[in-house]
Amino acid sequence: MIKAATFQGQKIAVFGLGRTGNSAALSLAKGGANVWAWDDNEMARTAAKSQGVNVKDISKADWLEFDELVLSPGVPHELPKAHWTAVKAKEHNVPIICDIEIFAREVAAQPEHQRPKIITITGTNGKSTTTALIGHILRACGKDVEIGGNIGRGVLDLDKMHAGKHYVLELSSYQLERTHSLHANAAVFLNLSPDHLERHGTMKAYEAAKLRIFDNQTSDDAAVIGVDNEQTKRLYSELTAKNGRRIIPISAKKSLGRGVSVMGGKLYCNLSGKCHEICDLSRAQALEGRHNHQNAAAAYAAMQSLGLDPKSIGEAILSFPGLAHRMETIGSAGPVRFVNDSKATNADAAMQALKAYKNIYWIAGGVPKAGGILPLEKYFPNISKAYLIGEASPEFHKTLTKKKVEHKVSGTLEKAVLCATRDAMQSGKKNPIILLSPACASFDQFKNFETRGEAFRKQASRIIDLFEQEKNRMSAA
Question: pLDDT tens for residues 107-165?
Fold first, then answer.
């Protein structure tokens, strides 16, 4: 754990005792702060106490005594409605921060020659895969690396920092809007599309939160930005006009006169005036689809900016094993392949899988996002049949009926998987794909997208095992 020594002697309120809140409270306490940690949920408080967190009711505290409020990223401080702790903080001029800001101050407090390298990744989609891929590349190149932030471990729960350490951080807009001091040696901004607007209010505010990833960079640092997306293409032009840092454009759609791009499935780098082929991404089994090619380009650009060997980066990209719940192949039962893309919690994310496959038996639904699935219309011809689950079922049923896409309202994931398997087995189609890519949040039926993905994995694995048992039985007969 990283000790938050820069807060020594301060009185800090912490609200939200989940993964990040607990690690923040413990880190602050180890650093010598007087921590008052609280959560409105009694079970969360009990769990935090068992981990050694100092749980004290901040609603009864004198807020004039608090130096700062560490507010869990998932708790709103403005929209759609400010949480009571945020209201208290504003009334008493208490700054609101998150665990990433604590981490940033600890890095800044180190002597310059002892500071670790910081690589940050944001965007509406592709963050987790790119973060995991960068971590994989660094490990393959023999670097001491930690991965955290919005993925895996809370940032303050990572191992102690030192010179030579590399921290790879996935950052959400919720985290970035409460972070002011973070200095990234390489910052990646993949893409931008409407999401979390209930929290940010407007696209402009959402964009502003994401752009914080480039704050505090200098001319020695690298800003990697996708130019396949209209919004980030504009941001690239605006950043280029401002200068002040190395800006590396990336594309999976077109060749770039300067930048890193993918053409014909091959990754190219053209940053020195001469174009070099890095690797053939058709050999990267865990990076199917154009969106993953963009992720590979982003990872290469960030790692090249830190001085890693191009050949070693390319070899590491090809050996990347993939990430759970992101177009993850569970296995096959005969010709039928099961793909877990539970992380696709909005239409843009689901679009990547619908583009990548044919003969899809699509499981979709959950808590719908703004815009529904109509933006996916272009890829409806790839869908053999859809199976709808959760709260979004009525809305998605109307859309698919209007667009003449065969579908069934299954209600539950379990029923959807069984029906999709039966239909795919009986279809006679070449290489049918049973795809969980919900285009929705999971909170109506599951705790989170990971739980939803694990439920799909468990059921798919059971079907695969039964198929193998039957095949072995028939062979032995």
Answer: 999 999 999 999 999 998 889 999 999 999 999 999 999 999 998 899 999 998 999 99
Last residue of some domain: 97, 121, 148? Answer: 97
Report if residue 171 sits inside a domain.
Answer: yes
Cα(133)–Cα(282) distance, integer angstroms: 16
Tokens representing residue 102 in the block: 């604590």
Same domain, 132 and 164: yes
> Is residue 69 domain-resident?
yes
The C-alpha atoms of residue 206 and residue 200 are separated, in whole angstroms, by 5
Nearest to 117 by CA among 52, 166, 84: 166
CATH code of 109's domain: 3.40.1190.10
Where are the extended beta strands (E) located within 221-333?
A: 222-226, 246-251, 259-263, 266-270, 276-280, 328-333
* 401 and 271 in a common domain: no
- What order of strands is seen across the sheet that includes strand 266-270? 144-149, 165-170, 117-122, 186-189, 222-226, 246-251, 259-263, 266-270, 276-280
pTM of model > 0.85: no
Q: How many domains does the chain have?
A: 3
Residues spanned by the domain of 423 = 328-476
In a domain, residue 323? The reply is: no
Residues 108 and 89 in one domain: no
Instruction: Output DSSP code: residue 249.
Output: E
Helix (H, G, I), strand (E, B) or coil at 265: coil
On the CB side of 156, how many CA atoms lie within 13 Å of its CA? 27
Q: Is there a contact between 4 and 161 (Cβ–Cβ < 8 Å)?
A: no
On the 0-12 / 13-18 / 19+ scale of CB atoms within 10 A, 90 is middle
* Tens-place pLDDT, residues 293-325: 999 999 999 999 999 999 999 999 999 988 889
The Cα–Cα gap between 324 and 341 comes to: 8
35 beta partners: 12
Residue 85: partners with Cβ closer than 8 Å, 6 or more residues away = 13, 15, 58, 69, 71, 75
Are 32 and 112 within one domain? no
* Whether residue 239 sits in one domain with residue 216: yes
Read off the DSSP letter of residue 55.
Answer: B
